[in-house]
TrEMBL record, chain A:
<keyword id="KW-0133">Cell shape</keyword>
<keyword id="KW-0812">Transmembrane</keyword>
<keyword id="KW-1003">Cell membrane</keyword>
<feature type="transmembrane region" description="Helical">
    <location>
        <begin position="36"/>
        <end position="52"/>
    </location>
</feature>
<dbReference type="InterPro" id="IPR007227">
    <property type="entry name" value="Cell_shape_determining_MreD"/>
</dbReference>
<feature type="transmembrane region" description="Helical">
    <location>
        <begin position="104"/>
        <end position="128"/>
    </location>
</feature>
<dbReference type="Pfam" id="PF04093">
    <property type="entry name" value="MreD"/>
</dbReference>
<feature type="transmembrane region" description="Helical">
    <location>
        <begin position="59"/>
        <end position="92"/>
    </location>
</feature>
<keyword id="KW-0472">Membrane</keyword>
From TrEMBL, chain B:
<keyword id="KW-0133">Cell shape</keyword>
<dbReference type="GO" id="GO:0008360">
    <property type="term" value="P:regulation of cell shape"/>
</dbReference>
<keyword id="KW-0812">Transmembrane</keyword>
<feature type="transmembrane region" description="Helical">
    <location>
        <begin position="9"/>
        <end position="27"/>
    </location>
</feature>
<dbReference type="Pfam" id="PF04085">
    <property type="entry name" value="MreC"/>
</dbReference>
<dbReference type="InterPro" id="IPR055342">
    <property type="entry name" value="MreC_beta-barrel_core"/>
</dbReference>
<feature type="domain" description="Rod shape-determining protein MreC beta-barrel core">
    <location>
        <begin position="124"/>
        <end position="277"/>
    </location>
</feature>
<protein>
    <recommendedName>
        <fullName>Cell shape-determining protein MreC</fullName>
    </recommendedName>
</protein>
<keyword id="KW-1133">Transmembrane helix</keyword>
Length: 175, 292
């Protein structure tokens, strides 16, 4: 049963991403700044650091599955989120071996993951002409607000999720 | 361990190839989404509906309290306007009858008119977090008669069109995400055959307005504040849907035609209840909205 917690939580936040943005006050959405919730990615980083043990890499598999789901449900252009999420989680899983997973390391991982994945997504959308992008404006208008929004989400989740994921992870890896 | 190093590189390259293939597949002009995508979209839509309903209920309560404060003032204004409408009602009644008589004389049946449509009420259940794409999901799908390219409106005016329809949910492309592939044939209505025709050709992010390219000039210049409505000539949208008001007229880059910047009448950011319009007149063979 505890095996199912992680995918269920991921699925819940996948759904909430779309519903929550509708209830953001319109001046956030209307303004120059674009905020994109990458909540699934933040959760995946938690899973990668706290849930996976040793050389197990369930997080990468979850990243592929849920990245693809984000693509299907919210953008219709398959593969972009899937690839960038999986790639970022793979990098973080390798970095995890060098640094011990405490709050500040997690913060660093989250910033790194968010910046990398958002840039990658933007780069691909720009490449295939889905959006017309001015890279000069991108840093301040989209990247910074996006990273900040998701960091708030990350900090809010830390006390709730970190210990629990470790428990679930250890139980999962024992059997 | 050179073998493992190679294996990693191998997986990475395969992943990259899959990525390119998937993007290529989804950018292709697809008539319908694949079964898997439809199924996932419907499942997620169903779950979103469950989450969305209580949240709207709670936010609705707060909004209602807010509304109550303004009620008295609004009531006063509405009462004044009601007096004016009474006169209009008689006019409309008479015009309608006359119109019907003339139609009978011409032996046109009701469904021939491009003004007629069948509305489908729907609620917006989610908005794409990827904000560049300007998509929202509504809770009505093919089962309710929604199909691709139908126009979506709110009480204020047009907000977009149906991009893809699944069985129980559908995705709406908002006007802000329109480009040269999603044109709307539109018109500025004037008396005496002086109508101005043109195309809505996309959305300008810098000024937050739609670009209305004027094809057929009238003797008089376009003025600020004039209403742009759909003309129904595109073959899919019904005629007479309010799109927005002109804010500025600028010449295009070659100086041959002029483009009016049109501010959308509907609020494209706070959309809750929408109507999908099913045009009753038969579609012509070629859909001009999708051409070029």
């Amino acid at each position: 049963m505890k095996r199912l917690y992680v995918p269920l939580i991921l699925f819940l936040f996948l759904i909430l991403e779309g519903v929550a943005i509708k209830f953001l006050p319109s001046r956030f959405v209307l303004g120059e700044q674009l905020m994109v919730p990458h909540w699934v990615l933040v959760l995946l980083i938690y899973v990668a650091v706290f849930y996976d043990r040793g050389n197990k890499s369930q997080a990468v598999i979850y990243a592929i599955i849920f990245g693809l789901l984000v693509d299907i449900v919210y953008t219709g252009i398959l593969g972009v989120y899937m690839f960038s999420y999986a790639f970022v989680i793979y990098i973080i899983q390798n970095l995890k071996k060098l640094l011990h997973g405490n709050f500040f390391v997690m913060l660093l991982f989250s910033i790194l993951g968010l910046v990398l994945s958002d840039m990658f997504i933007t780069f691909i959308y720009d490449l295939v002409d889905i959006i017309v992008l001015n890279w000069d404006n991108y840093w301040l208008e989209r990247l910074l607000p996006t990273v900040l929004l998701n960091l708030v989400f990350f900090v809010a989740l830390y006390p709730i999720l970190a210990k629990r994921l470790m428990e679930w992870g250890s139980e999962n890896n024992w059997d | 361990m050179p073998f493992f190093r190679n294996k990693r590189l191998f997986i990475f390259l395969i992943g990259f190839i899959v990525l390119v293939a998937l993007i290529g597949f989804s950018l292709k002009d697809r008539e319908n989404l694949s079964m898997v995508e439809q199924f996932i979209n419907d499942t997620v839509g169903w779950a979103q509906n469950i989450v969305h309903t209580p949240v709207t209920y709670i936010t609705g309560i707060f909004k209602n309290i807010d509304d109550l404060r303004n009620t008295y003032n609004e009531n006063q204004i509405l009462r004044e306007q009601l007096g004016e409408y009474k006169g209009l009602v008689y006019d409309v009644q008479e015009l309608k009858e006359e119109n019907e008589e003339l139609r009978d004389a011409l032996e046109l049946i009701e469904s021939d008119s491009i003004r007629n449509f069948h509305p489908i009420q729907a609620t917006v259940i989610s908005r794409s977090p990827e904000q560049w794409l300007d998509e929202v999901t509504i809770n009505k799908g093919k089962q309710d008669g929604v199909s691709e390219n139908m126009v979506v409106i709110t009480a204020e005016g047009m907000v977009g069109k149906i991009q893809t329809a699944q069985h129980y949910t559908s995705k709406v492309q908002l006007l802000t995400g329109f480009d040269q592939f999603n044109r709307i044939s539109a018109t500025i209505s004037r008396g005496d055959q002086n109508d101005i025709f043109g195309m809505i050709e996309g959305f300008d992010d810098e000024t937050n307005t739609l670009m209305f390219r004027i094809i057929e000039e009238s003797d008089k210049d376009v003025e600020e504040g004039e209403m742009v409505v759909s003309s129904g000539m595109g073959g899919v949208f019904p005629a007479g849907m309010v799109i927005g008001a002109v804010t500025e007229v600028v010449p295009d880059q070659y100086g041959l035609t002029r483009t009016a910047l049109v501010e959308p009448a509907a609020d494209l950011y706070e959309i809750n209840h929408v109507m999908v319009l099913d045009r009753q007149a038969a579609e012509p063979e070629e859909e001009e909205e999708e051409e070029e």
